[in-house]
Fold these 3 entries.
Entry 1:
Amino acid sequence: MIVNYSGIVSVLASVTGTLLGSPLGSWIASWSIPAVLIFSSITSFAACATRFIMKQDISQASCVEEEASQDVENESQENQEKQTELENKADSKSADNQSTIKKSANPSLKSKIMLLAGSLLVAFIPACSVSYILLGLGKQYGSKSLTILYIFSGVGSVLASVLYAHSSQKLGLRKIAVLGIVVSLLAYCFMFSSLLPIMWVAFFLESIGGMLLVEPIIVARQILFKGSALAKFSGWARLAFAIGATSGSWIGFAFSSTFQWHLLPILALIFTAGLLVVLPQLPNTSYVD
């Protein structure tokens, strides 16, 4: 249920971000870059605040889900008594579920730190590179050239959301995240070129890779944490995301002001590779209804 719901949310988020966020950000950037940074900081921390405000609701929803899961398990156990032929398979699946529940009940400190680092990095990486590469391309080719880039980026974002919604249950979160890292690294390598057609491909791939990285990290904490622990950790994870977006924007601004914008993919490649340390904390199982 969590994986299905996250897929629907990712599609809505990609469409909303493409139709509203990108044009609004471009309009503000044409007026003042510091204004974009301030606006981004305010909205990031406002989004973080909503997580803390909804803390009680998240906790209650998680508890309801736990009760529903328990009812399903009880019904499954009754069916096992009647169907002896399926007993071995059911026992094996039950053991896997119990193992996952035990891990979910009390994630280690290392898991918590790595998941928070993942939330920070998935916001930091595009904030420190993509926006300023777009500004550099706008200066080099003119603002009208950015329209096609936004189209490719938007199509990639929506396509990635649909891909995640249809494949995450079969592949599992860790494999989806690995695919996201590979696609993102390839995209940032293409961004070293200043040729506009190659940049179209680069931004298309970056949108796909970014979406395939963000969603597994979000869903992982929803699976590993339950009840009040989920509500509390979600607030901290959103704070880490806001810090990553804000710090990435300012660091990217300082880097692009000091060096050429063509070097910004170096930052993105380094920190994207850093996401490899987060992978072991993501569930490696598939979720098929």
Note: Residues 1-7, 93-104 have pLDDT under 50 and may be disordered.
Entry 2:
Amino acid sequence: MRSILPLLFLCCCVVLSAETVQLRKNGNIVSFEYITQDEDTITVQIPGKDAVFTYKWDDLDQDWIKKNNPKIWAERELLTKADDKKMDKPKADEVDPFAKEVAPEDTKTILRNLSIAVQDGLHGMPIVNIEATCKEFDGVDETSFWKGYEDLKKASKGPLALGKEKEAALLVDKTPEKPEKTDTPAAKQPKPTNTNKGKANKENKTNGTTQRNPENLAHETEAKKDFDADVRPFTLLGYLRSFADGSPKSKMAWIMFRRSTEDRKNAVALLRKYETMSGELAEKTADRNTKTDALVLKKTFGAAADTLEKVTRDIATLTIDPRLQQDCGAVLAKIQPLLK
């Protein structure tokens, strides 16, 4: 019996020392024995009873509790501040790896990243009135335009790891060569003429109207559908290849590029980004070779960005600036070995 008395005395002391807290909710004030709290709730007990209640802080009159229970409220403020610090400063292993772009440590990394970035999709020009577009340039018909449209798509999405011969073949007109003349009877036979086609053209000219090729109409319908659906069939790589090639078929890419404000802005912005990146690497590196290579890249990307930035819709000529061909070729030469 004597051994139990000290335990009972200690229990009474704990009960007597329980901290009282007053809470206010919906205008009612009730006194409780305080148990614990966290950032969102407070747990209390009715004095002299076993019933335990947990209330959300948002459901209570916090202004009144703060004024009448300063000790409890001070503890709450400590908890909320600690929670804010956890939110503001996440652990190193919880930081999003994509939250901040990592600066490249060498020029190979810059070129590798750029070789990937130039393959990101671009919209191309808005398809509104192709006939009017072709009329801006002498000697451009709609069939040639759509052929160039498809050629640019191939240059943008075709095999990327190509040798010089295959790279050039990608941009060379694939029109089959005419067979050499022979003395065989078949060679001497006259070519059949399409009298219906000639008759139709004659009627169209007589009526003052131009009958559009059904294939061209199909191309236009498909292109409009892709543009509206946010399909991005072109890439900066395709433009670079076309301009660097400088062949007659690259003129269609030139027409589309000068009429696509969005593509021009994205192309220039990307080259400016890597121009800046190369300059920063040149400044911070201690390696002499890396510094030299980085400065060369900075100049190459900057020159191409300057030239592309000068292209506007107001340039109503099919003559491509030789500087554009040279600068795009220089960029392409840098990234070509890393294309995959």
Note: Residues 18-93 form one domain.
Entry 3:
Amino acid sequence: MALNPRRGWLDGPIQMVYYWMCHFPAIRQRGRNPLIRLSALFVTGFLIAVSCTVTLASEAPLNLCTAGPDGNYFATGRDIAAHANPRYLKVLVAQTSGSMDNMQRLARLECGAAIVQSDAYLVYQAKHRNKPVEIARNRFLYAEFAHLVCRRDAKVATTDDLLKYPGRHKILVGAGDSGSALTWHAFTLLDSRYAQLSAEQIGGEDALGRVLNDQAQCLFFVSGLGSEFGKRVDQRGKGLRLVPITEDVLRNAEFGAATLYETRHIPKGFYKNLEAGLPDSGVATLTVGATLVIERHWSAKYPNGPSALLGAVSGAMPAIVKRATAGLK
């Protein structure tokens, strides 16, 4: 519970001052040296009490790691900062390269909290077994959808069509340590069949162009519905289609006590070209949770910081959800 510096936080020191003033004549009669010693003791105690109380009640500085300046993570960080109570929390929204970069910064204690994908911890620990990140608390923010888009002439209707013939199709899974490549890496850790597929770390417009030119048969990306890239894929995707991702091993995957993915449907008709001719129920796929994680060392240093941060998140949630679901309206 947050401290209230206006109610009773100096009661102890004030009572000490009151006692000192009321009993000053009696103390003075007992001699000068005891008076000097008592004065020094009082001043020291008063300063310590005030110093400790001010430390507890003052703002906790927080580096909140997000992603690039044009994405939802950075915008979400700014929403959270805008709702932070400046008496208890000062948030600096840090631009980063995304979830994996954020995990590395958390490990180096450069960030007290970060926004990451729900599967980021799994992938980070697989790559950095000797540099664990200690998470004190986490908070789900919104869902991002996994999109698997393939050429219609590649005859890929389900992921089984890929997994049965692992060398037949090339899949472009996102650049480097992007969120898309991170989730694909998580798939390979959870289901060894995905590790056998021909996947290449190319993303964005480059990946879309290669698929359209038949240099690859599928592309994979993770984004909110209605993202600018998703819109461009649909606009240029008359020869492309969405492919469901529904494997039980992925759908039921857990890491620690947390479920990594949730199955949801991309609404029918949301993507005009990508969903043409597909079932009216929409395309089932996995969603990845955009999640706020709070690092343990920061929590220990600023005991009231996590509560202040989660309070700011609660205040920012209407704006966060509105942005994340804008494509559904």
Note: Residues 11-53 form one domain.
